[in-house]
């Protein structure tokens, strides 16, 4: 089988003028999991454009019911790897929830999420939102506009419920970040209470991404944070209004990762590099020539085997625009980023941010020194594997030397205050100072005991 593939790859390479050097694969038949979101695109593109084939990999892609099922599949070996929430490998490795050593050699994308509220809540928020000369809401919209609405519901004895996709999801942390930046408390976790609703003004609960619009329509939740296309689906269905994108919340924030077990990477190092090579090529394809391939990507993702939403719904955000209220479509060329800005490089500073949010809200119950954040980040995020794969692509003439951060120490330059909704800068090398700078959230030696913060 491998010999046949080698011959086919050589023929393809000669025909295209590029040479994909075949690694000696320890395992060539692989099954990868994903959730039906547009940011699984690198997997779909690597499959449909033949990039997995070029590496001699026979890949099966399987949609999973929810994030827990997906994580369990990777841990028990049913899945060889998966499109994952960035918080999942970190949480599993430190033992929050399911315990297992999961690593990531590849970051899937930047941005791509939004926060949507019901039409009723939007109408109640609008008087609190400034408008421009054309009468359109001025973005970004602060959660300060939501605060009076939450207070009204509280006075009526109604809990203000919102949805996110998983306790260690970017969506949970982004929704919490937005709420806290507007003065609303999203609640704490404790070892004895993992609802995340201790002391909350807004009560967050888990809803799988594809079910978000229906749950909103049923009135079970009043809003949610989710990836695309499920914010745009609310617009198309006429049931909700996205109020902010995560690009507005934190410019070019990290999103999903590709996760595998540490054991898989150790047992199959060449296979791991081959997978990363294919995924890098897919990310490049998605962003090249100013997103020229995005319409084709949308067509791929709209198929039932992948995301399965209508082409128009996926295209609304995937092709460089984002629609808020129906008819209020704005240019957001970087709403989905797959390769630009070193999007695919697994930066330690991205890992540290997720860990700070786990600590901020009590999922990490006790204070940790800065060195701990660095150690955990380096045990999970593996830029060395990424750069080995990138070097092979450059040597094969399939990628440009200048497109990769060869000399990086794994940490991005601090994110400036102007790029974050609350105007607070983020430096991954100083996690405790960052936590101390946030008005709402655990700091220093504080812990949650019962319903109170101690320390």
In short:
The protein has 455 residues and is of the alpha+beta class. The chain is built from 19 helices and 18 strands.
Give an account of the 3D structure.
The protein has 19 helices and 18 strands. The chain has 455 residues and is of the alpha+beta class. The strands form seven sheets. A five-stranded mixed β-sheet has the order 2-1-3-13-4, with helices on both faces. A three-stranded antiparallel β-sheet has the order 11-6-12, with helices on both faces. Strand 14 (321-323) and strand 15 (329-331) form a beta hairpin. Helix 2 packs across helix 13 and helix 16 (348-360) packs across helix 17. The N and C termini lie far apart (62 Å). The relative contact order is 0.16. Mean pLDDT is 95; it is low at 1-17.
């Amino acid at each position: 089988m491998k010999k046949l593939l080698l011959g086919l790859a050589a023929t393809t390479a000669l025909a295209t003028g590029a040479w994909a050097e075949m690694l000696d694969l320890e395992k060539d038949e692989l099954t990868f999991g994903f959730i039906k979101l547009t940011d699984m695109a690198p997997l779909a593109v690597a499959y449909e454009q033949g990039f997995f084939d070029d590496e001699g990999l026979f890949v099966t892609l399987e949609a999973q019911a929810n994030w827990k099922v997906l994580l369990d599949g990777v841990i028990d070996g049913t899945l060889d790897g998966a499109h994952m929430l960035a918080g999942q490998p970190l949480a599993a490795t430190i033992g929050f929830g399911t315990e297992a050593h999961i690593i990531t050699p590849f970051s899937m994308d930047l941005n791509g999420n939004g926060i949507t509220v019901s039409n009723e809540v939007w109408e109640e928020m609008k008087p609190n939102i400034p408008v421009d000369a054309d009468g359109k809401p001025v973005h970004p919209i602060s959660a300060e506009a939501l605060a009076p609405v939450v207070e009204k519901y509280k006075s009526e004895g109604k809990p203000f419920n919102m949805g996110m996709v998983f306790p260690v999801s970017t969506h949970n942390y982004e929704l919490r970040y937005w709420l806290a930046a507007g003065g609303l408390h999203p609640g704490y976790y404790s070892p004895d209470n993992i609802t995340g609703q201790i002391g909350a003004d807004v009560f967050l609960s888990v809803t799988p991404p594809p079910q978000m619009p229906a749950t909103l329509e049923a009135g079970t939740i009043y809003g949610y944070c989710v990836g695309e296309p499920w914010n745009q689906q609310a617009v198309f269905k006429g049931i909700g209004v996205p109020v902010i994108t995560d690009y507005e919340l934190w410019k070019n924030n990290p999103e999903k990762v590709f996760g595998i077990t540490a054991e898989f990477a150790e047992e199959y190092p060449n296979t791991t590099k081959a997978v990363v090579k294919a995924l890098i090529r897919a990310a490049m394809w998605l962003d090249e020539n100013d997103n020229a391939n995005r319409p084709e990507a949308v067509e791929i993702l709209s198929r039932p085997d992948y995301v399965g939403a209508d082409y128009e719904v996926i295209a609304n955000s995937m092709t460089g625009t984002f629609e808020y209220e129906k008819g209020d479509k704005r240019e957001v060329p970087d709403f989905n980023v797959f390769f630009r800005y070193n999007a695919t490089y697994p930066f330690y500073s991205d890992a540290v941010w997720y860990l700070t949010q786990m600590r901020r809200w009590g999922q990490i119950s006790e204070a940790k020194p800065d060195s701990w954040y660095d150690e955990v980040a380096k045990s999970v995020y593996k830029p060395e594997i990424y750069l080995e794969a990138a070097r092979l692509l450059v040597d094969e003439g399939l990628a440009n030397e200048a497109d990769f951060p060869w000399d990086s120490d794994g940490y991005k330059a601090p994110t400036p205050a102007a790029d974050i909704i609350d105007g607070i800068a983020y430096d991954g090398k100083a996690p405790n100072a960052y936590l101390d700078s946030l008005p709402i959230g655990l700091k220093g030696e504080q812990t949650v005991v019962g319903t109170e913060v101690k320390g």
